[in-house]
Write a structure and sequence with these properties.
The complex is a heterodimer. Chain A has helices at residues 11-22, 115-118; strands spanning 5-6, 9-10, 80-89, 95-105. Chain A is of the alpha+beta class. Chain B contains 11 helices and 14 strands. The mean pLDDT of chain B is 91. The chains are: A alpha+beta, B alpha/beta. Chains A and B meet through β3, β4 and α2 of A and β1, β2, β5, α7 and α8 of B.
Chain lengths: 129, 424
């Protein structure tokens, strides 16, 4: 293969050069013609919540569909457990996976404090995925 | 405080509003985004009366959901970020002779305990005491959940048999791929100690993976949680359970070493926060760190129930009637991180006279009242001094921002791109 040439250029090299010149192979070379939001520098700082700015108005975009509406298994009011859908999303907000998990309803989480030392073993609740 | 949440749902940008006082999310039209869960709104939540370090009406109950037993601050390690460095030689150290009087105190004064934690220093340094204490605790509270956070360096197969006999899960501190801050010339990496490795493998066999927890403290130079988890999967077992939520933080602003080694750069905090989000937002990996899953679930729980700001007690139950720290003399201490006489608030022999003093409620801190993640963080350590609490805030924010962002993704299928505060 390496001995085959076109105009004194090895075929392997010619193919690679052609592919590289005609087709983008890096994310940075792709055109974002749909205006997808990317996880760029607009992601909020994680330092503190003190960097503030005033909102001047809504985007005018109505809320789209979102996940929490369906698949709620009714349990005991105020306590007990419910099965709720959980989602994973990408930076375009697309749902990449969904699954149901049980959410154990209790009072505020302080009972489960120090959970690094009790979680998964705690007899008071079941937090296993 | 209200916040504008810039989110993306199905490739479309949205601007929602989150109100941390009522703990509710709204869409652009002001509709409650969790209206479908409103049957679970907590009508009868327990409203917390804010407490200060000097004034807290909560008296200790005879029903304790958590009892921390502080054995002493003796430790064979000298971790750089240790929260007890300043108190190494000033706390009471337990000895075997304390056990019987202590058990008598419990018999006469405490009706029920759900969870017991044996704290050091390094608890296994107090092995002779533990050998006497634990069987009696188990006899007195057969269903209590007993744990001992340990550096693991003194583990042997015999000790694992003891853990097994008395139904104690194994809890080991190790920082994975960035363990240097726990090591010194005297204290090598425990995973390189053949005796400890043998004991750990034996524990895996006898206790099972679900009863072993490796707890890392991500710190400067070691803020990638996925790397930490993968380290243990490679070095130990594929089913190892690792906790990465315990981000390093300052507990004592007067301890220069503690302050120095709790620092993280902005880049490190971002790496940590993004890493936590990735783990939680990935169905392949999320089971690797149950402590993260659990904490996000707790946060979502507060959202679904619309538990408001005034339901927040603290990060731990110690300011409440149902949490307590004691030494083996029966002294009630403020916190296992500050186990000294000047921070002692009564005695086990008369819990009705012991107020939960020394803690500050998050409602007294403006930055907490105005914080996006207060329902996850709960104000940080209520026992740390004010300056330490402030120094700890950025690291905790990085952690809890990841829970918030991941919670929004999990519940709404939305990707949170940024947050802005709205003027009241």
């Amino acid at each position: 293969m390496s001995k085959l040439t076109i105009n004194s250029t090895a075929i392997e090299t010619a193919v690679q050069q052609t592919a590289q010149s005609k087709f983008p192979t890096k994310m940075s070379q792709l055109t974002n013609d749909s205006g997808y939001v990317t996880a760029s520098g607009s992601v909020d700082s994680v330092s503190t919540a003190t960097n503030t700015s005033r909102i001047t108005g809504g985007s005018g975009v109505s809320a789209g569909t979102y996940g929490a509406g369906g698949n709620v298994t009714v349990g005991n009011k105020g306590s007990g457990s419910i099965s709720i859908p959980y989602f994973t999303v990408n930076a375009q907000g697309r749902v990449t996976a969904s699954y149901n998990r049980t959410l154990y309803i209790n009072t505020h989480c302080n009972d489960c404090s120090h959970c690094s030392y009790t979680c998964s073993y705690c007899s008071n609740c079941d937090c296993q995925p | 405080m209200k916040f504008k949440l810039n989110v993306v749902v199905d490739e479309k940008p949205h601007q929602w509003v989150y109100d941390n006082i009522v703990n509710v999310f709204y869409d652009e039209n002001g509709n409650d985004l969790l209206k479908d869960f409103l049957p679970y709104k907590a009508d009868n939540y327990e409203k917390v009366i804010p407490f200060t370090r000097e004034c807290n009406d909560n008296k200790k109950s005879t029903y304790l959901k958590l009892m921390e037993i502080h054995l002493g601050t003796k430790c064979n390690f000298n971790c750089k970020y240790c929260s007890q460095t300043a108190y190494r030689n000033s706390s009471y150290s337990a000895s075997p002779k304390d056990v019987d009087p202590f058990i008598d105190l419990l018999k006469n004064n405490v009706e029920k305990i759900d969870r017991i934690q044996l704290w050091g220093g390094e608890p296994l340094v107090y092995w002779k005491t533990i050998q006497l204490l634990v069987p009696k605790l188990r006899e007195l509270y057969p269903n209590a959940f007993i744990t001992m956070p340990s550096n693991g360096s003194l583990l042997t197969k015999d000790k694992i048999d003891f853990y097994h006999k008395y139904n104690i899960p194994l809890f080991i501190s190790h920082d994975g791929c960035g363990n240097e801050k726990r090591e010194s010339e005297k204290n090598q990496d425990i995973l390189k100690n053949p005796t400890v490795r043998e004991a750990l493998d034996y524990a895996h066999e006898v206790l099972g993976a679900d009863r072993i927890s490796i707890n890392a403290t991500p710190s400067s130079g070691n803020t990638n949680p996925e790397k930490i988890i993968k380290f243990f999967k490679k070095e130990l077992w594929d089913d190892v359970k690792v906790c990465t939520h315990n981000i390093v933080r300052c507990h004592n602003s007067k301890d220069p070493q503690g302050v120095e080694f709790s620092k993280l750069s902005e880049e490190e905090r971002k790496e940590y926060s993004d890493g936590i989000f990735e783990i939680l937002n990935n169905t392949e990996n999320f089971i690797n760190d149950y402590s993260l899953v659990r904490r996000r679930q707790n946060l979502i729980n507060t959202w679904v129930q619309h538990l408001p700001f005034d339901s927040i007690i603290a990060e731990c139950p110690l300011p409440s009637p149902h949490g307590i720290v004691v030494n083996l003399r029966g002294d009630v201490l403020q916190c296992h991180n500050h186990p000294i006489a000047s921070k002692t608030y009564g005695h086990l022999s008369d819990l009705s006279k012991v107020n939960a003093l020394g803690y500050i409620h998050c409602s007294f801190k403006e930055r907490c009242r105005n914080c996006l993640v207060v329902h996850g963080c709960c104000g940080g350590c209520p026992s740390s001094d004010d300056k330490a609490n402030e120094l700890a805030c950025p690291n905790l924010y990085a952690l809890h921002y990841a829970f918030f962002k991941s919670g929004v993704a999990a519940l709404f299928g939305a990707y949170l791109t940024s947050v802005e505060k709205l003027e009241e």
